[in-house]
Amino acid sequence: MTVRTVVVDDSASMRAMVSHLLNADPMIEVVGEADCPATARTMIKELNPDVITLDVEMPGMNGLEFLDKIMRLRPMPVVMLSTLTQAGADATLKALELGAFDCFGKPSHSAFSLKDYGDELTSVVKAAARSRRGARPMEAAPVTPSNYRPRPDALIAIGSSTGGVETLIRLLSSFPENCPPTVIVQHMPANYTSTFAARLDRLSKPRVVEAAGGMVLEPGLVCVAPGGVNHLTISGREVRRCRLIEGERYNGHRPSVDKLFLSVAQTAGASAVGAILTGMGSDGAAGLLAMRDEGSVTVGQDEATSVVYGMPAAAKAMGAVQIQLPLDRIAHRLLQECRA
Question: Which residues are catalytic?
Fold first, then answer.
């Protein structure tokens, strides 16, 4: 089935480039190009596309305002395109919270990176068309008791990708101020994770920071892996610390969920709990299996509440997922497994 797509961007050259990259995939057809939200609104009504790509920074009604209207009046999969700047990072995270399926930095003009970008963009657009956003309404999450206390040796490790921003916000909103030490890999560009960690910190009771090398993992601290440059791993058994290591992409990603989970399996074993959440591909499956083999409790998000049931599905197929749960039940289970 062909994915019918509308490309929205005020730049004619950017519209042409994105359309060219998408049309190169035989499963995608760009059925319209719009230079502003007003034109896009008409195209959406007339063409009824499966997916739209939307520029964040546009004159007049910007992409965020238009996205908000789409999600309230005609919900559909939207892939946001943004510059890789601090302002772009702020707008991107807001777009994901408003309901965008995913966000990408705008492509560069070098041939090699443009091909890689095109491969990733077409994968996301096709995944957006298959997405099951809103398939199951969330139930009320169990309330964490006010007297919650984690085990001294407890550690929570979480991996997520596409759909993970909104998912992690909802997950951490259930964490108490003195939650077990928690480490997270969310696939994101390099400039985005510090902004994301700051937003999580504002919306959560525990302290949330971007991980730094040598940072001691302690109760009430949530560390988010820096995007794009290093892999986040854990070192030390008596005193656990964040360790950032250089290296090529692993399983297609840097930071890699697999790298984090493998290090947790080695250093924390049965005292750790792992969770693999919504995302494309299979990053984290092998690492979660290693955690389970070392005695960790392992949890996977179910298909109905995943924006993309890729990473959790790969982990489940491999035998890495011990317990599969909807999103609204995962935080409670992780916390109970770590309770003193």
Answer: 161, 187, 283
